[in-house]
């Protein structure tokens, strides 16, 4: 029986643990016990923080794991690559993991390979000097996700408080200040094997917009013109190569200006969260992405076959999307899965504030907002 280490045990990892169990794989899950819903589902659970790379390496060596992975947790990526590198298992290099989980390092790697990026500066508590950038700018922590600490700033006056907010949220106490790119936003879901990338889907993203840009909905396939999608795909390949992402899932985020220019916002060497990787890709394309990621971690790969052409998406419930609440109590022909997690609806400052989700599949895009 193959043994798979899974880093993280929150609800995000549940589809991974369940799929690996169903594939007859012995699952070994590592995470801080708080909120570890996979604890009861995995064959083995170890209450070790996902950041404790040495302790996880020691345990994985003792178990004799055959592979190690996660699906949507950025913070787990360096630990996974570290352990995989030490044990000669399939993943990306540790250096690649450091670049894909720090937005400052990532921007530098993109710049070195001529990927189109916004003008940016890295600031710290001590070095708050920002070179001349055009306002509006976006200020964000170098190493967080879920839009925590992200603010759009219109003028110099509001910059110090946005920098303080971002630095407070940052683990490494670093923030990025970068020029704001006007336009629509997409993500690209991909899977790579030995450095060859396969693009599975382009996802249209809808957010609250300024100031904090929290995701409200995602839809597949993208409705952008074919020529723009081709450009997005070629930028995705460039960005994955720039970060030396060679194996496993990729989630690349882009902004597309009204002129059709494509700027990279960030690339994760893992699946996208928000059910994009775990649910939407399979619903719209027929490809079992989670199974594909597990197979790669265990050193086997089958070329993805995209044999379904459906529309899928997810809506999140919040104060901003209050008008979709009735769809949670009615039975709709597009329903796949839905849940209200909290009765109180908030105006969003980050993705944890959201109160529920509704996943759909249909033969057309479902517009609820
Ligand atoms: N330079 C930029 N120009 C325009 N919009 C931006 C820029 N940088 C970030 N954004 C907006 O802010 C959102 C969050 O930024 P970013 O992805 O860098 O942070 P994050 O915390 O990793 O977010 P998430 O985990 O939700 O993807 C983006 O999805 C985008 O809508
Ligand atoms: Mg992002």
CATH class of the largest domain: Alpha Beta
Oligomeric category = single chain
Estimate nothing, just give the exact number of structural domains: 3
Biggest sheet statistics: 8 strands, antiparallel
Strand order of the largest sheet: 13-12-9-10-11-14-16-15
The percent of residues in helical segments reads 25-40%
Order of helices and strands: EHEEHEHHHEEEHEEEEHEEHHEHEE
- What shape does the CA trace take? globular
Low-confidence runs: none
Give the names of the bound compounds.
Answer: adenosine-5'-triphosphate, magnesium ion
Helical segment count: 10
CATH topology of the largest domain: D-amino Acid Aminotransferase, Chain A, domain 1
Question: How large a portion of the residues is in β-strands, by DSSP E?
Answer: 25-35%
What does this 3D model show about the protein?
With 369 residues, the protein is α+β, with helices and mostly antiparallel strands. The chain folds into 3 domains: 3-89, Rossmann fold (3-Layer(aba) Sandwich); 119-179, 2-Layer Sandwich (Dna Ligase, domain 1), CATH 3.30.1490; 184-362, ATP-grasp fold, B domain (D-amino Acid Aminotransferase, Chain A, domain 1), CATH 3.30.470.20. 27% of the residues lie in helices and 27% in strands. It has 10 helices and 16 strands. The protein has helices at residues 14-22, 53-63, 77-87, 94-100, 103-112, 159-169, 226-242, 276-285, 289-297, 326-329, and strands at 3-7, 26-30, 44-46, 67-69, 120-124, 137-141, 151-153, 174-179, 184-193, 196-207, 215-220, 248-256, 262-268, 311-317, 335-340, 356-362. It has an 8-stranded antiparallel beta sheet with strand order 13-12-9-10-11-14-16-15, with helices on both faces. A 4-stranded parallel beta sheet has the order 3-2-1-4, sandwiched between helices. Strands 5-8-6-7 form a 4-stranded antiparallel beta sheet, with helices on both faces. Helix 2 packs across helix 3 (77-87) and helix 3 (77-87) packs antiparallel against helix 4 (94-100). It starts with a strand and ends in a 7-residue tail after the last strand. 47% of the residues are buried. Adenosine-5'-triphosphate is lined by residues 118, 138, 140, 144-148, 150, 178, 180-181, 185, 207, 213, 215, 253, 255, 265-266, 351.
